[in-house]
Every structure is written in C-alpha cells, then in structure tokens.
Design brief:
The protein is an alpha/beta fold and 356 residues long. It folds into 2 domains: 145 residues, Glucose Oxidase, domain 1, CATH 3.50.30; 199 residues, Rossmann fold (3-Layer(aba) Sandwich), CATH 3.40.50.880. The protein is 23% helix and 33% strand. It contains 10 helices and 19 strands. The strands form 3 sheets. Strands 10-12-11-13-14-19-18-17-15-16 form a 10-stranded mixed beta sheet, sandwiched between helices. Helix 1 links the parallel strand 3 and strand 4. The longest helix has 12 residues. The protein is globular. The mean pLDDT is 95.
Length: 356
C-alpha cells in the first residue's frame, strides 16, 4: 500500500505503508544511530514525534527484549529500507508486526537522506503520514503548522510509584519519561530505587529521606512543565544529592533561573562527542533532545558549565556551586550505547557517600 509523508513546507515523499494505516500528524525528527532501533521506538522522550532513521537498513535483527519502556512511544516511524526477514538468536518478531500491534503508522522506501537534509537545512518541522492518495495538501498544511506536542510528560510518566529493591543507597527517581536503563544502572550498583510519578510533591520525596534524587529524561518543551519546575526548585533547596539527565537537566536549570531554547534540529543518535570541561577528555554519547540550556542565562553563583558539545558548542552539563548537584544533557545510561559516560552513575554513588 502506498503511503505519503507530507511536510509543512510542502515537500511530499511517497513510499510504502508499514505498520498501522491510520493517519498521524507529528513533529518529524531524525536519529543517526546505526543500531538500537527498538530502544528508539520505546524511549518515552520520543512521545509527540515521528522518527526518521538515517541508517538505511532497519530491522535486520528484529524485535528483541531490549525495550526501554513497556510500550513504544513514537507517533510514526520513517525508514529507507525495512528488513522483512530478521535474523538474531534473540529475535521475537519483526518491526512490521510490532508497529502494527501497537497501532503506529510508518513509511518505508523514501529517500531518508534527502529528508534529513531538509530537516537540517530548514529545521525540525511537522509532518503527516497518510495512506490517503486523495489528500488535499492545501487543507493539510495549515493543520501541520498548527500542531504542537504540548505537555507530553503527563502522557509518559508512571501512574504510581514502584520500588526496585536494593541493599545500597536509597534513590528517588523522578519519572518524567524515564528510560528503563536509568533505574537499572542504579539498581545494578546496589541502589534501592523508588520510581515516582512526575507530579509527586517534593515534600513526599524528601519525607522518604532518600540518599539521592535522580531526575530523568523525558519528552517535550521543558517550559511546559511549570508545576514540576516548582517542585524541582524545592528539591534544589534541600541538601539532598541530585543527578539529572536530559529533561531533568533542563528542569533544574529552569528551576534555578536559567533559560532554555529549542535547537534547529536537535541531537538524536549514539555518536555525539561531548567534552568534560574539567579534564578536557571527550566522550562519545547517546543523545535525544531538541532543547538545550542557554548558558548565557546562567547565574555564575548558582551553576557553571561542566560539559560542552564538541560539534556545535551547546551546553551538555552543569555543576551546581555549593551543592551536591550535577546534571547532564546526554544519556550516560545509553542503551544500546556507547557506554563511555556510565561512570557518572558511580560519581553519583560517591556523592551520596559511597556504597554501604
């Protein structure tokens, strides 16, 4: 069946329908990872977005037990070529069946290189995936321009708290759309991890007397999370050690008076170099974000840059003055990789006083 990707600038790509045949409007973003497509599909940070995979062949090892949440979150999936015959000893099915099962529309057979060039040159834009050959582009484009992702954190956060048992430090993990491997990275280091819904009050978290607090990744514009930012400020004002990743990093910056802005096309993939400003060492990182902290708005008495993106000079991490708080824009839990910056979890353990 034919499918069409219609961009808000009027560009139309024609390909083959994969997965669900329902129509969807979403923000179109691209990911440069060569592997880890299942982790991309199930990363809650992609809620409200349809993902273009720049690597030309996707699905060759099928669906494996490597999901980063209980379900996929992408609005749509866009690939050059989809493997129809996956081969892997852990394979449990095909991407085609996975997309169909979860009612996610997709399109294959388009020139994803040309599409990515458009998104890089013009910036991230909205688009529609449809199987309607009689579409009216003049009617569709105003709808595309009107689309916003809105507050998608409420959509992806857990509904009730749960605990991963451990005999080490007690960590409160704020779930703004947390990838599974954040909790697992702490748990395998012995931590008891209590995962809280996004709108849990700071008072409830602090009343549990955790050794440390983890602010997770998540989707959307951080400025949409006004109520959460107010609670994060209360956590900042406590003396509890805090480690924050991605959206959590942005929320902490906003809570302490800094500002954020949207990147032209974001950072999404497993090959982004970041420099540790203390050691000048460069790490290859996994990233998935469309917004960054504006370092020009930092109060130098509150925080200072700790990591910088080698490609474009944007901020990739902050160290807070006089506080046991550090935050990073990239993903040290990676999944599928690279694992270069996993040591940051060990640093968090040390901040909490080491292992018991």
């Amino acid at each position: 069946m034919k499918a069409f990707l219609i961009l808000e600038d009027g560009n139309v790509f024609t390909g083959t329908s994969i997965g669900s045949t329902r129509e969807v409007i979403s923000e179109i973003v691209f990911n440069t990872s060569m592997t880890g497509y299942l982790e991309v599909l199930t990363d809650p940070s992609y809620a409200g977005q349809a993902v273009v995979m720049t690597y030309p062949l996707i699905g060759n090892y099928g669906i494996t037990p490597d999901m980063e949440s209980g379900r996929p979150w992408v609005d749509g999936y866009i690939v050059r070529e989809l493997s129809r015959m996956p081969s892997n000893f852990r394979e449990e099915g095909t991407i085609q069946d996975f997309l169909t099962k979860h009612d996610i529309p997709g399109i294959a057979g388009i020139d994803t290189r040309a599409l990515t060039k458009i998104l890089r040159e013009k910036g991230t834009m909205n688009g529609m995936i449809t199987t309607d050959e009689n579409y009216n582009i003049e009617e569709i484009i105003p709808r595309l321009k009107a689309y916003t992702t809105g507050n998608v954190v409420d959509k992806v956060t857990c509904s009730e708290k749960r605990v991963l048992e451990g005999k080490g430090k007690k960590v409160a993990l704020m779930d703004f759309g947390a990838k599974n491997n954040i909790a697992q990275s702490l748990n395998k280091r012995g931590c008891e991890v209590t995962i809280y819904p996004a709108h849990t009050s700071a008072e409830e978290i602090l009343a549990a007397d955790p050794d440390g607090i983890m602010l997770s990744n998540g989707p959307g514009d951080p400025k949409e999370c006004k109520e959460i930012i107010a609670e994060v400020k209360k956590l900042y004002d406590s003396d509890t050690p805090i480690f924050a990743i991605c959206l959590g990093h942005q929320l902490m910056a906003l809570a302490t008076g800094a500002d954020t802005h949207k990147l032209k096309y974001g950072h999404r993939g497993g090959n982004h170099p970041v420099k540790d400003l203390k050691t000048n060492r460069v790490y290859i990182s996994s990233q998935n974000h469309g917004y960054v902290v504006d370092t020009d708005t930092l109060d130098e008495k509150i925080a200072k840059p700790a990591f910088v993106n080698v490609n474009d000079g944007t901020n990739e991490g902050l160290e807070y003055i006089g506080k046991n708080i550090f935050t990073v824009q990239f993903h040290p839990e990676a999944c599928p990789g690279p694992q270069d910056s996993a040591y940051l979890f060990d640093r968090f353990i040390e901040m909490m006083g080491g292992t018991k």
